[in-house]
Amino acid sequence: MNQYQYAFCKFKIVLPCLIALCHVSSLHATVYQCEKKGVVEFSQFPCGDDAKLISVKEQNPSLSSQIVANENIDTSGVDSYIRTRQIDADIQQHQDKIDSLSEKMNQQIAALGEQSDAQLNNLSGAKKETAIANQMTSISERYNVLIAREQRDIDRLLKEKHALPASKNTSEIDQQSTQSKGIDSFIRSQEIKRDVEQRQSKIDTYQAQMDRQIAALEAQAKEQLNNVTDATFDNSLSRKMSALTSKYATLIDVEQHQIDRLLQELASIE
Question: What angle do CA 250, 238, 117 make, to 5 degrees?
Answer without folding.
Answer: 90
